[in-house]
Amino acid sequence: MDVDIGTIGSPTHSVVDIHTHMYPPAYVQLLESRNSIPLIRKFAGAKEPRLIILPAEAESLDKMTGSPETSHLPGRPVTTHYSSLKQKLHFMDTHKIDISVISLANPWLDFVAPEDAGETAKSINQEFSNMCAEAPGRLFFFATLPLTAPPETLLAAVGHVRSLKSCRGVILGTSGLGRGLDDPALVPVLRALAANRLTVFLHPHYGLPSEVWGPRATEEYGHVLPLALGFPMETTIAVARMYLAGVFDQVPDLRMLLAHSGGTLPFLAGRIESCVVHDGHLVREGKVGAGRRTVWQVLREQVYLDAVVYSEVGLKAAVDASGADRLMFGTDHPFFPPLGGDEQGEWESVTWNAEAVRKALGDGTDGARAVMGGNAVEVLRLREDS
Ligand code: 5CU
Apex CA 160: angle with CA 52 and CA 144, to 5°? Predict the structure, then answer.
């Protein structure tokens, strides 16, 4: 079914895309200069250079390097959709998206040497800020943190991004400072973000260990398993670890927007709760007593979910878990382009998500309008100029 997402928005009800990435030109250059993943590499006979970023793609890259005559190219083509601002605006216009909150795509600066990370983050964030300045009111951004840098550099980066006019938060992977998001050393950073009203957009990259996909995956299954299952499980595990470590209680002002509708959290929150309540170790440690906030509470009090789940069933679970007032439409552009189709036209991956909103919340309802943009405008202060 064709969905005109423009009919959901209106002059008073903006359509906002909160999950939309870019690799600005300086980041593309950085990836082009590398010999191991993440990297961008040209292959003989291929029209566009290839972006190879996922851990699960390392094996295909090795195979390709060993026998360059293979027809199976690793990664994905780097089209103009990845780094051109003009292209981003065209994509927004095509899909009647009024406002986009752009963010660097994975794997951000996770691989950058500690001594370079601070300056790299500064220039990338400045580049994002400059792009937003070219389309005032239409573009905002989630900044990138230099997570491998020393703590003082990292905290200074929070201050820097806070000062950038169109910055509304930061995009964060699940590795944190290298030991995950339940690492006590990350708490001061999360506190600084919360104190500066910077929303954390949590996004996966690492998936699950490649072995779980089995010996046939690389040759036969493309990127389906790591993207469809590895990404959501990674997010689920990261947030469950934060919950068990008490991070949400330690940083009560922290606001997290979870990619892909929270992975599998809306579906598994009940099971997590049951496992917590029935765990002898947690009970003996006094962690299950009065005053404990349940996973459900955290989902309704500190968590927002994007609506990038491509189905009514998944979206309904997200609505049930966090509430329609905590869900926000997204596209995941420039990923999931129409293969073999017109990349300048309408993208099916976008209309699937808009259709899911329509079906889960009702055509033309206040709930649908809130998810398509109203919630993002409110939560991320998109009508404010600074
Ligand atoms: O297709 C992909 O690899 C990806 C990715 O890497 N990151 C993302 O956000 N979406 C799709």
Answer: 15
Rounded-to-integer distance, Cα 233 and Cα 246, Å: 20
- Whole-model pTM: value is 0.95
Which residues, at least 6 apart from 88, have a Cβ–Cβ distance to it below 8 Å? 20, 22, 81, 100, 102, 139, 333
Of the candidate CATH numbers 3.20.20.70, 3.20.20.140, 1.10.3720.10, 3.40.50.620, the domain formed by 5-23+82-379 belongs to 3.20.20.140
Kindly list the protein residues whose Cβ atom lies closer than 6 A to any atom of ligand 1. Answer: 53-54, 105-106, 223, 227, 332, 335
CA of 248 to the centre of ligand 1 (A): 27
| Residue pLDDT, tens place only, 43-99 | 888 889 999 999 888 877 777 765 655 557 889 999 999 999 999 999 999 999 999
210 token code pair: 């490649």
pLDDT over 70, % of the chain: 95
Task: Answer yes or no: are the C-beta atoms of 134 and 170 closer than 8 Å.
Answer: no
Whole-number mean pLDDT of the chain? 94
For the chain, the domains span 5-23+82-379, 24-77
